[in-house]
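Budget justification aside, the reviewers requested a transparent look at the raw inputs and outputs of the sequence design task funded under Objective 1. We therefore reproduce one unedited record. The lines immediately below are the structure tokens for a 165-residue chain.
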């Protein structure tokens, strides 16, 4: 049974992906700063901080595929907190990729945004664009196979009020 690590798996998008991975036969490990309200009995939960390389390493170790949905995604919070946006979205993502490199992960999936090449999105846009460049460079330098998914406004069951139409 393959293991998938879902970074940010307690959130809206990550929790749905974790469930789908479980449904298709993956052993799922969720890594997030808070306990998932939607954790299933066939999933493992690790509470940790994406800013802590050792905690990220421990979560990723033993996985074949890693998804990163962790982000400071609220555009208004990003505008008010540019340093936190960089720490979480750029440095945090780099911590995940470094763990992927260290443990020879087969596939890294990065959740980006449609704002990447927009004039809108502020520091959030900048952070996601920079992270995409880092993802591409990790592939070029270390051979980390990746998929980048660019999401727009997400809504539906489990969504909060910070991102909707």
């Amino acid at each position: 049974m393959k293991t998938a690590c879902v970074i940010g798996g307690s959130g809206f998008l990550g929790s749905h992906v974790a469930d789908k991975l479980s449904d298709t036969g993956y052993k799922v490990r969720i890594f997030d700063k808070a306990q998932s309200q939607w954790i299933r009995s066939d999933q493992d939960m690790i509470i940790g901080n994406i800013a802590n390389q050792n905690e990220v390493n421990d979560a990723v170790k033993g996985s074949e595929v890693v998804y990163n949905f962790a982000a400071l995604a609220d555009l208004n919070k990003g505008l008010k907190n540019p340093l936190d946006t960089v720490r979480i979205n750029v440095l945090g993502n780099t911590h995940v990729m470094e763990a992927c490199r260290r443990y020879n992960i087969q596939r890294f999936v990065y959740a980006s945004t449609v704002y990447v090449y927009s004039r809108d999105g502020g520091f959030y846009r900048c952070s996601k664009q920079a992270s995409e460049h880092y993802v591409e460079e990790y592939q070029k330098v270390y051979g980390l196979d990746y998929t980048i998914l660019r999401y727009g406004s997400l809504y539906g069951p489990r969504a909060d009020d910070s991102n909707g139409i």
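The chain has a mean pLDDT of 94. The first strand starts at residue 3 and ends at 7. Computational costs for records of this kind are itemized in the attached budget.
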